Amino acid sequence: MENLKGLSISDLIKSKRIIVIEIKEKKLKEIIKIFKKIDISSLELKPFSRFNIAKKLENLFEGKLSNFLNKIIKNRKTGCFILQPEKILDDIDDKFLIKLSTAITYLIGNPNYDAMAGKYYARFHIKHKDKSDSYLRKAYKNMDLHTDGTYVKEKTDWLMMTKIEEKNVSGGESVMLHLDDWEFCKKFSKDPIGKENFIWSSPKSKNVDYKVKHPVFSEDVKGNPQISYIDQFPEPKNMRQGIFLQELSDSLEGSKNKIITKLPVGSSIVANNYFWLHGRKPFKKNKDLSRELLRIRGSFFIN
Q1: 195 lies in a domain?
Q2: CA 243/CA 255 separation, integer angstroms
Q3: CB 289 within 8 A of CB 283
Q4: Which residues contact 208 (CB under 8 A, 6 or more apart)?
Q5: Model confidence at 1: pLDDT above 80
Q6: Can you give the residue range of the structural domain that contains 43?
Q7: pLDDT tens across 91-110, in order?
Q8: d(CA 156, CA 78)
């Protein structure tokens, strides 16, 4: 694995597929200094300014960071990285994390419009009490393994999740599963039902007023299986599809090859959305529980 000055590169202890990228303190201070001159409202209202912040970050790594990240995220053997600071400095706050997340994603591709938030990124809290219409904010429910973008028309090649804040939290670990490590991938991806078009919709909170059709499984140009699936949003049209989805869900959740890891505050996880599934373990009950996450998802650049 190539080394970049200012970064410490290693494999996640629990999986060599996930690359851990740690930004060293000296380089962090350089990034913070440059980012302080950039206004978040500018990033939100002027799309070209997002490319500008990405270019400034790229320049700090001698023009090598984009290529390095894209090699990881597009490689079937890896396809996922965790980015985290060596040390949480006082200036690493929500504003800095929005800027860093923006810069990183714009080195990979074009983020999609997130209808839930009305901008290119979404922020959401998970708290003790919740009245939402999906598992996203339900702290004490298991969020089953899934991919993103199943119910939208835009391509969703990758996603980033950044942990902005966390207080009074026990549990809530991130769960990841690489498609090639799933014990029953061949069985389900080769099943003709999985290649049928399913109808996918979403609850009101997502602010998407249409439905889409697509199969659960497809193949890349090399014939490798790809998955587009979430348990909450398909509308099976017959018994065959309904039972297929139930057995698929049971198999994914029962996999012994899931990677369960706790991400520190200030860290981001970026994954290829075609062959990585992600989820979350339930939190332990605490009336003062609070976690805030940032989400960005999008498509790779087409040069």
Answers
A1: no
A2: 18
A3: yes
A4: 115, 151, 152, 202
A5: no
A6: 7-179+254-300
A7: 999 999 999 999 999 999 99
A8: 18
In a domain, 206, yes or no: no
Residue 74 is assigned to a structural domain of this protein = yes
Tell me if 236 is assigned to some domain: no
Report in angstroms the alpha-carbon separations of 25 from 74, 84, 125, 284: 28, 11, 28, 33
Give the pLDDT confidence of 204-244 residue by residue, as tens digits: 888 999 999 999 999 999 999 999 999 999 999 999 999 99
| Gap between the Cα atoms of 104 and 53, Å rounded | 9
Does an H or E element contain 259, and which?
strand 259-261
Give residue 302's pLDDT: 86
Count up the domains in the chain and report the number: 1
Helix or strand run (H / E) with residue 17: strand 15-23
The domain spanning residue 43 has which CATH number? 3.60.130.10
| Closest residue by Cα to residue 80 from 230, 251, 214, 261 | 261
pLDDT at residue 295 tops 80: yes
Q: For residue 145, give the amino acid letter.
A: L
User: For residue 165, how many other CB atoms are within 10 A of its CB?
Assistant: 17
Evaluate the CA torsion angle 297, 227, 234, 125 in order and state its sign: negative
Record the tokens describing residue 78, joined without a space. 């890896």
Residue 303 has what pLDDT? 67
Q: What does the pLDDT look like over 50-86, one tens digit per residue?
A: 999 999 999 999 999 999 999 999 999 999 999 999 9
164 token code pair: 């902005």
Structure-block tokens of residue 280? 């979350």
Summarize the confidence of residues 179-197 as an average pLDDT: 98
Q: Give the Cα-Cα-Cα angle 162, 118, 236 (nearest 5 degrees).
A: 85
